[in-house]
Structure formats: structure tokens, C-alpha cells
Design a protein that fits this description.
heterodimer, A: 311 residues, alpha/beta, Alpha-Beta Plaits, 2 domains, four-stranded antiparallel sheet, 10 helices, B: 437 residues, mainly alpha, four-stranded mixed sheet, elongated
Chain lengths: 311, 437
């Protein structure tokens, strides 16, 4: 459906995108994951025709995007990171306007605008000016404005920035609905939990380069541990036993912070009982045990040596 | 293409009219300020009270001549003359409550009479003036000269002071050693004739009773001035509101043009430009629609402002209506292109607004919208030939109160359209399509 080949874009001496390549199949949701400044927005802007790449190409259904008026742009719906709405106009006037940009008018225009408002749950606020909306409502309207011409591909550039959890969930619900309708989604974010919830596949990008391209499962497979056991110990004299503990079979990593012991394991079902039994047998009692899967944050840390949010 | 174009233009119009501040600034402000300037610069034909020059007369002579001088000056429709003491007059001029003070010195009547018939020391009339009103001082001086000539000559030929001065002069001629006999005889004859005339006038009790109306009325300026303000047609008075409303329309429409340009920068800043450009629309359509909406708003402002001028102040299109509309359309297109240029050259809305406003004020000032361009130095008047607002003002003046035909609108229209092409070309070539944000 969408193929990006060796895309490069520089601003003066700053290389924003450096040979980015990936493809998205029809109906697939691809997460473009990376810290701020990684090149996500530049990639999305180039795909949507806002920026001209220095080299490389973007193919939509196997065809390169032509000029500004190329009808193939109708296959793309862009949800910019900014709230690209006219605050002075009502919600329905905004949607009518954006629909008209795609040559829609009359009854068709009215029906697609009403449908889009319905989808994002703003039908009752149709005649209210956008400036009276909350940030979350604006985000939902921002999404609706990209759906009016029924695009096959949705480019979502951090569509949940700055919204409350309730609105974020509402947007996720909308996106899952669109996914169920067979839309192809390219979702850029630096929120791990969003990528984990929505995406079939993830492209991790850093400093303009793709550093991983895999399914969620595949990315976790890159990590040395699949689970982290977190134990809250009752006594604080475990330090002396740490060396013996680290040598125990199945312990891939061990870290003691205060009386919390974090243990990385690769096979949870066999390693966990052995570890817990070893501790109990030596009198190291514990009051609380939690098993956590590593998240994409850990994946990014593992791939780049840097925390995603601090990058 | 027509659906997106219509949507883009209508969107701009909706946003403009949704902004009350913009509407007030664009429609109400030019009417209010135009009305003020129009009144100050003569209103619709008449001389307003405020335009009479305030003059204080200090009469230290208290003679028949100085009294007649006051009466004569007070009769001038251009002056508002009052008597004052020397100190009060100087203080009033210093404070700006009077533009000019005229000090008539002691013995002015007698000294002026003597100076009338023979050379020698002349009495001095002091004229104190406010330096910020120097043009008014020149005008008062001209009127004063005419008044003094009238009053003094009348007194010499028909008044008691005149009799006394002529007698003294005759005596001095007789005693004069250096004067040639032939000259003495001629002068004696002249003064004796004046003396006889004066005696007859005194005897009859009224000037000109013997039929010599010309002389008994005193010497006068040997011509009358017939003033005629040349406007569109005979009988049609100059309407100062026509120029002031044109000027203020030009100014506030250019401000609207700035707002249109800043609006594009704000759209870029708010990411709206991305959404517009993501649609399958040409760059020409995106910029062109903005130009059309700005031009439409500009035309609306011109029509509403001149409509108000017509209804409230009787401003009429005395010249070619087609020429007037042509100038309005050309100026509107120039404004639209100016707005695009602001958007193309500006980086951030905040920084651009100040700079664009300054540039606009310069354009308006040089265009003669505040004060007529004829008061500028010659070189500056030449410079203004390259300023589009000058052509807009000339075109609007020509089609309104000057009442000229379409031919006189052609050059202003051509200059404005030329400016629109230059501004538009620069804007298109400098527009930052790839800018992020």
C-alpha cells in the first residue's frame, strides 16, 4: 500500500532523515517510534507531499507521488501534530471546509462531515465554535478532518499530544474502528503504550535512521530477558547473598535497590519457581512479587543505549 | 477546482467577519477618522469656524487710524480678531491660544500719515507669531498690509489726521532747502489739491458727497480677487471628506492586507498550512484564493466607507464611476498582493506585524493620505511617484471631488496593477513552501 525507499532529507547541514525505508501493507497499522527530533514528522511530511525529499521515493500503490495536484493525494489523510483547525469557525464549518478541498459538495459533503463528527463523538457540538472546545475535543476534530475524503491511508503524527487520558482513550477507540474498517495507519509517537496498543508492526527511528523494523513480538525477542521479577524483601541483609544469587541458573540479571530485588529471566514458567524456592530455602522472605514484561522503552534503551523520553 | 476555490475564499471571509476587531478596524475606523480629517480640512465646501486665524490686536496708539484698522481687520472672513494688552497678547501666542498678535505702536496714525507722503522713518507694526503657524503669519501679514493701506489712505484724504499731516508737509516743503524749485511747485500743487479735497469732504460731513467716491474711500489695492475653487463642475463645492475618506480607506485597507498576510503566517504556525497542502490543490490556487479574499474584503471596505461618505457627508463620485471602480479594483488587487508579500517575507507573525505596520505607515504617509503630497519637498514628490498609495490617492481624488473622466484613472489603475504584479511576483518567488511548522 505504502512504500518508503531510502528517503533522505536535510536542512542545511542537519540531516533530518537519513535513508529511511519501510513498507506498510493494506490494512496494517505501523508505528513510527522515536524520540522528539528523530525524523518522524519530516518522514510523514515527505510522504504526504508537504516536503520534497533530497533523494529516495514514496510509492503509494506502487506509484510515486507527483505534483501538488496529483489525485493520488486523495488516498492519504493527514492528521498533523498541530491542531490544524480554524478556532473561529464551528466544528461543522471546519469539516465542510476541509471536505470541499477534496471537491466534495452538496449532500455528499454534508453526509461525510456528519459521519466524521459522529465517529469522533462530537455530533452534539457540531455548531459550536472550535475555540470553545477542550484540548481533547480539538484532537478528535483534528482526526475527523482527515477522514472526510475517505482516504485509504491515514498518517497520524502524534495525534494524542497533550490530551487527557479520557480523550486519548476516545481517540484510540476511533483508530481501532478505522483499523477495523481496513484503513492503513501510519502512527508516529514517542508514547510506548500507544504503540503497543495500536500497532501491528513498529519501525524504530533515531537520528533519522531506522534502527529496528519488526512486530512487537519480534522486538521483544531482541531483549536478553522476557520478564522481570520484582520482589519486595522483608529483611535488608540480602547484599551478602547477591553473588551466590547471580550465579543461580536462570538468573539473567539481578539488581537490588533498597529491599527491592529485580531479577531478569528468560523462561518465566521454569525459572521463577526455582528462584523463589532458592530464596525461601535460605530464609530470604518476600512480602510481594510482581512479574513485568519489558516495554518498548526497554527495547529502545537496549537498541540505542538511551532512554526514549530523555533523547 | 471551483469548489475548493470557493471554499477557500468563503472561509477567509467568514473568519474576517467573525473577528469583530478586524471589522471595526476595517470599516468603522476609516469612517470615524476620515470624518475627523475631513472636517479639519474644510468639510464639505465651507470654511469651518476652526479654520479662522486667531489674531490679537494690541492698540497702543488709540487713534482714529488704529481704531479703523481694528474694524477693517475684524471684517476679514479669514480672521478672528480681538483686542488685547501687549503682555496678554504675547502670552497667548506663547501658549498657542492665538496664532498671531499685531502690535500697533503709539503715534502710529500720525507717523504712518507722514510716511505716506514723504520718505523717512516709517512706523513699525510688530507681528508676533506662533512658529508652528508660520503659514498663518504670512496670511495675516498680507491681510494687514491691505488693511493699513486702505485705512491710512482714507484718513489722509478725508480725515482730520490727514488734514494736519498735509499742512505739516506743505510747511516742510516751503522750508526745504535741497528741493528743486520745479519739484517744490509740483509737490505743493499735489498737497494743496489733497488739502482742498479733504476740506470739501470735511465740509460735506460725509466722504464722497461731492461725487469723488473713489478717493474719499481711500487708496485701495487696484484689483479685486475673484476666488473660485476648481472642482468637478461649476457650482459643485470641494468636499474635503472625499480626500480624507480616500486616505483613511487606503490606510486601513493596507492594515487589512497586513492582517491577511499575518493570517497566512499564523496558519503556517498552527499547522493549518500542512492540512491545506496535503489536499490535491495547486500552489497557485492556495495563494490565489487568499489574494481573491483579500481583494474582495478590500473592495467591500472601499464601497462601505465611500457609501458612508456619500450618505453622511455628501461625497459623490463626480467623475467616472467606471474609473472609480477601476481604481478600487486595482488598489484591492495591489493590497492582496501586498498581503501575500508580507506572508512571503515574514518569518513569525509577531516579528512581521511590527515591520509590516511600519512599512504601511510609510506607504500611507508618502501616498498623501495624511497630508497632501504637494507639501513635500520636490525630491520627495518625485519619490512618491514610485509609491502605489500615491497613485491610489490620485486616482480616488480624480474620480471623486476632481470629477475627472476615465482617461485620468488609467494611469493610477496601471500603476496599481503594476505594483500588484511586482508584489505578487516577489511573493510567489519568495514564498517558503517547504517551511516546517
Amino acid at each position: 500500500m505504502l512504500e518508503v525507499k531510502d528517503l533522505r532529507k536535510s536542512y542545511g547541514s542537519h540531516v533530518a532523515v537519513d535513508g529511511v525505508s519501510f513498507r506498510i501493507a493494506r490494512g496494517e497499522t505501523l508505528g513510527l517510534l522515536g524520540p522528539n527530533g528523530a525524523g518522524k514528522t519530516t518522514t510523514v511530511s515527505t510522504i504526504s507531499g508537504l516536503l520534497r525529499a533530497d533523494s529516495g521515493e514514496v510509492l503509494i500503490d506502487g506509484r510515486a507521488l507527483g505534483g501538488d495536484t496529483d489525485p493520488i493525494k486523495r488516498k492519504i489523510g493527514l492528521v498533523p501534530q498541530d491542531l490544524a483547525l480554524f478556532d473561529e469557525l464551528t466544528a461543522i464549518d471546519n469539516l465542510d471546509f476541509f471536505a470541499a478541498l477534496y471537491e466534495l459538495d452538496g449532500a455528499k459533503l454534508k453526509s461525510v462531515a456528519a459521519e466524521a463528527l459522529e465517529l469522533v463523538g462530537l455530533a452534539e457540538r457540531a455548531k459550536d465554535k472550535v475555540k470553545s472546545f477542550s484540548g481533547g475535543m480539538k484532537r478528535r476534530l483534528n482526526l475527523a478532518a482527515a477522514l472526510l475524503h475517505d482516504p485509504d491511508i491515514l498518517l497520524l503524527d502524534e495525534p494524542t499530544v497533550g490530551v487527557d487520558p479520557q480523550s486519548r482513550n476516545a481517540i484510540f477507540d476511533n483508530l481501532e474502528t478505522l483499523k477495523a474498517r481496513g484503513k492503513t495507519l501510519l502512527y508516529t509517537t514517542h508514547y510506548m503504550e500507544e504503540a503497543e496498543r495500536l500497532c501491528d508492526r513498529l519501525v524504530v527511528i533515531d537520528h533519522g535512521k531506522v534502527i529496528a523494523d519488526d512486530t512487537l513480538h519480534g522486538l521483544y525477542g531482541l531483549l536478553p530477558v522476557t520478564n522481570v521479577l520484582s520482589l519486595e524483601l522483608e529483611n535488608s541483609d540480602f547484599g551478602a547473598a547477591m553473588a551466590d544469587f547471580q550465579a543461580l541458573a536462570g538468573v539473567k540479571s539481578a539488581e537490588l535497590t533498597g529491599n527491592v530485588l529485580k531479577v531478569g529471566v528468560h523462561h518465566l514458567s521454569s525459572d521463577a519457581p526455582a528462584i523463589l524456592g532458592w530464596l525461601a530455602a535460605r530464609g530470604h522472605l518476600y512480602s510481594h512479587v510482581v512479574s513485568e514484561r519489558p516495554d518498548l522503552e526497554t527495547v529502545f534503551l537496549s537498541l540505542t543505549g538511551r532512554s526514549l523520553r530523555d533523547s | 477546482m471551483m469548489i475548493p476555490l470557493k471554499a477557500l475564499v468563503m472561509k477567509d471571509l467568514r473568519i474576517f467577519f467573525a473577528d469583530q476587531r478586524a471589522v471595526i478596524m476595517s470599516f468603522v475606523a476609516p469612517i470615524v477618522i476620515g470624518a475627523f480629517f475631513g472636517y479639519i480640512f474644510g468639510g464639505n465646501g465651507g470654511t469651518t469656524d476652526a479654520s479662522r486665524i486667531s489674531v490679537l490686536l494690541v492698540d497702543q496708539d488709540a487713534s482714529a487710524i488704529s481704531a479703523a484698522l481694528f474694524t477693517d481687520l475684524a471684517g476679514s472672513p479669514s480672521l478672528d480678531v480681538k483686542k488685547a494688552s501687549a503682555d496678554a497678547a504675547r502670552e497667548a501666542v506663547r501658549k498657542g491660544t492665538a496664532s498671531v498678535a499685531v502690535e500697533v505702536p503709539k503715534d502710529f496714525g500720525a507717523d504712518a500719515g507722514r510716511a505716506f507722503f514723504r520718505p523717512g522713518t516709517k512706523p513699525e507694526i510688530a507681528v508676533l507669531y506662533d512658529p508652528s503657524h508660520s503659514a498663518e503669519q504670512m496670511m495675516v501679514q498680507g491681510i494687514l498690509t491691505g488693511s493699513v493701506m486702505r485705512v491710512v489712505s482714507r484718513e489722509m484724504f478725508s480725515g482730520a489726521t490727514g488734514q494736519s499731516v498735509v499742512k505739516d508737509s506743505l510747511a516742510q516743503i516751503e522750508q526745504s532747502q535741497g528741493l528743486a524749485a520745479a519739484d517744490k511747485q509740483t509737490l505743493r500743487g499735489l498737497l494743496q489739491s489733497v488739502e482742498q479735497w479733504n476740506e470739501r469732504a470735511q465740509a460735506s460731513g460725509a466722504s464722497g458727497a461731492s461725487g469723488g467716491a473713489g478717493l474719499s474711500g481711500g487708496l485701495t489695492v487696484p484689483f479685486e480677487i475673484h476666488q473660485e475653487a476648481v472642482t468637478s463642475r461649476t457650482g459643485v463645492a470641494y468636499n474635503g471628506y472625499a480626500h480624507s475618506f480616500g486616505g483613511m480607506s487606503v490606510q486601513f485597507i493596507l492594515f487589512m492586507g497586513i492582517d491577511a498576510g499575518i493570517g497566512m503566517l499564523l496558519q503556517r504556525q498552527r499547522g493549518l498550512w500542512k492540512r491545506l497542502r496535503a489536499a490535491p490543490l495547486s500552489r497557485g490556487l492556495l495563494l490565489g484564493s487568499r489574494a481573491i479574499s483579500a481583494a474582495v474584503i478590500s473592495m467591500l471596505i472601499l464601497l462601505v466607507v465611500f457609501g458612508a461618505a456619500r450618505v453622511i457627508f455628501g461625497v459623490r463620485i463626480q467623475g467616472s464611476m467606471a474609473g472609480f471602480l477601476g481604481v478600487c479594483v486595482a488598489f484591492s488587487l495591489m493590497t492582496a498582493a501586498f498581503g501575500l508579500l508580507v506572508a512571503a517575507m515574514g518569518k513569525t507573525p509577531e516579528a512581521t506585524r511590527g515591520l509590516a505596520t511600519f512599512a504601511t505607515l510609510i506607504l500611507v504617509m508618502l501616498g498623501g493620505a495624511w497630508v497632501p503630497s504637494f507639501v513635500f519637498p520636490k525630491w520627495l514628490q518625485t519619490v512618491t511617484m514610485f509609491v502605489p498609495t500615491r497613485w491610489a490617492m490620485d486616482g480616488l481624488d480624480a474620480m471623486t471631488w476632481r470629477g475627472l473622466g476615465f482617461a485620468d484613472a488609467v494611469w493610477p489603475i496601471a500603476a496599481l496593477l503594476g505594483s500588484a504584479v511586482v508584489f505578487g511576483g516577489l511573493a510567489v518567488s519568495r514564498f517558503r513552501w517547504d517551511a516546517e511548522g
